[in-house]
Specification:
The protein is an alpha/beta fold and about 350 residues long. The chain has 14 helices and 13 strands. Strand 1 and strand 2 form a beta hairpin.
Length: about 350
């Protein structure tokens, strides 16, 4: 694949583990019904909220709800929802707080909502962190890059070589890379993975220390444009990945259990935000810059925002989560004896 093809398409489109079992109860849209589950017991049972249950009865009613955000373009829908007043329209008061260690922040309840890669959040959730996914976020954002003049044209050419995964072994870059190879019928054990910081990984390729690297498309774009790098596999552009939601909106499970009506309203606000971003990308990007949630080249940020599909459906997220769970079982990241249906019941609570 030629790197210019990827860029052309992008420009034109727009804590840790708890020993207790996770219990999550989530309101299903349109009715006073919730789903509860215990990861270590029988599949979820449908329960009905007391007909007298009101949002005023929920512990967080009238209180400020902290939501975690680290300033990334691709995780910006909740921030945009705050800036656009969509939470306020739903009668909610939210505060955007810095959350770099997102898994710990959401699992301990320090924040009630984070948006991040499925590749980051899924395994901790399966392992017991108090977290549940209520909505898919968007597609895209990361790819596998090699030097443009390396002679490497496909994942097959990386067999026996080393790939840099900037956020470390067992984290999102590593998990994403393994799926690239697995989807090409290559056992990830046939190559090496090494943690190299993003800022040093291009030089590491030029020095021969590694032969490929997983980068965000935003970081790598300038290196593709100047002829240094090219994409050989991509969440953003490849047919087998570009319709997959790469990220989800994850809520603290105890918060959802205790505040199902508030959780539904939060999802409504995020849906409004995602729709706004999809149809007003430049204006949404300006909001990020105005709130110091984004920096750098504005036009490039708009291009990146346009490269994501912000209007993913629950059906898309459902399919992707099942596929990812099956892959992670193969990699040994999730117990292969766990039934996918039970895992889905435990982690995925879509609100329509």
């Amino acid at each position: 694949m030629e790197s210019t093809g990827y860029l052309g398409e992008a420009m034109n489109k727009k804590i840790w583990k708890k020993t207790a079992a996770v219990l999550a109860i989530v309101l299903l849209a349109g009715c006073n019904t919730t789903v509860s589950t215990d990861q270590n017991s029988e599949p979820a049972k449908i329960e009905t909220l007391d007909k007298n249950h009101k949002i005023e009865d929920e512990p967080m009613y009238g209180k400020t709800i902290p939501i975690g955000y680290n300033g990334g373009l691709c995780t910006s829908a909740p921030g945009v929802a705050k800036a656009m007043g969509y939470f306020e329209e739903e009668g909610l008061d939210v505060e955007v707080v810095s959350a770099q260690a997102k898994v710990e922040a959401i699992g301990t309840g320090k924040v009630k909502l984070v948006t991040d890669h499925i590749a980051t959040l899924l395994v901790p959730t399966v392992n017991g962190v108090s977290m549940t996914f209520l909505k898919g976020a968007h597609t895209g954002c990361k790819s596998l890059y090699v030097l443009a003049d390396s002679g490497i044209e496909s994942t097959k050419d990386l067999i026996g070589k080393t790939v840099a995964v900037p956020d470390g072994i067992g984290n999102s870059d590593h998990n994403i890379a393994m799926r690239f190879f697995s989807n090409d019928n290559i056992d990830p054990s046939e190559l090496q993975f090494k943690q190299v910081e993003t800022s040093a990984a291009v030089l590491a390729m030029q020095n021969g220390e590694v032969q490929g690297a997983v980068f965000s498309d935003q970081f790598a774009e300038e290196f593709v444009e100047n002829g240094t790098l090219k994409i050989i596999r991509s969440l953003t552009y490849d047919e087998d990945f570009k319709k997959e939601p790469c990220c989800v909106h994850a809520f603290n499970a105890d918060f959802v259990k205790e505040n199902p009506l508030i959780a539904e309203k939060m999802v409504n606000a995020i849906k409004k935000s995602s729709n706004y971003i999809a149809n007003n990308t430049q204006e949404a990007t300006q909001l990020l810059f105005d709130n110091n949630w984004a920096s750098g080249d504005f036009d490039q940020a708009v291009r990146m925002m346009n490269s994501y599909n912000w209007e993913v459906t629950n059906e898309m997220a459902d399919t992707s989560l099942k596929d990812i769970i099956e892959d992670y079982k193969t990699f040994g990241l999730i117990d292969k004896d766990k039934k996918t249906e039970d895992i889905m019941t435990a982690v995925w609570r879509p609100i329509d």
